[in-house]
Structures are given as structure tokens and as C-alpha cells.
Design goal:
- The chain has about 60 residues and is mainly alpha-helical.
- The chain has a domain of about 35 residues.
- Strands 1-2 form a two-stranded antiparallel ribbon.
- β1 and β2 form a beta hairpin.
- The longest helix is centred in the C-terminal third of the chain and has 25 residues.
- It is flat, with a radius of gyration of 26 Å.
């Protein structure tokens, strides 16, 4: 492996290997995929998230 010359001496080039198993995201489970595709669950999530947004905006409007 060739060495790179620096002011302080010699340094080895970056030897990190890419594309190891730790570089990839985990795969979703079957249950996770089911929840992503299940429309009634998506409707519940939609209502919960939007109600939180509405509450936050109302609280912000009370402050001004």
C-alpha cells in the first residue's frame, strides 16, 4: 500500500472498507409492511398527526 507524504511524516491512506453490512439499513418486518399498507391504520395515523398539528397551531395562536 503506498504511503502519503505529509509535513509530519508519512500517513497511511484511508483504509476503511465500504459496503459492509453495517452500512445498510435494516429490513422492515412483515408487521411493519402490513401497517404501512393497511388503510384503516393509515387513516388513524393521519388523524392523530393532524390533530397534533392543529393543537400546536392553536397553542401558538394563543401566545400571539
Amino acid at each position: 500500500m503506498p504511503q502519503i507524504s505529509t509535513e509530519q511524516g508519512t500517513a497511511k491512506p484511508n483504509t476503511r472498507r465500504f459496503n459492509t453490512s453495517s452500512d445498510y439499513a435494516t429490513r422492515p418486518t412483515g408487521f411493519t409492511i402490513f401497517l404501512r399498507e393497511f388503510l384503516p391504520w393509515q387513516l388513524v395515523r393521519f388523524l392523530v398527526i393532524n390533530s397534533k398539528i392543529i393543537l400546536m397551531t392553536r397553542q401558538n395562536e394563543k401566545l400571539h
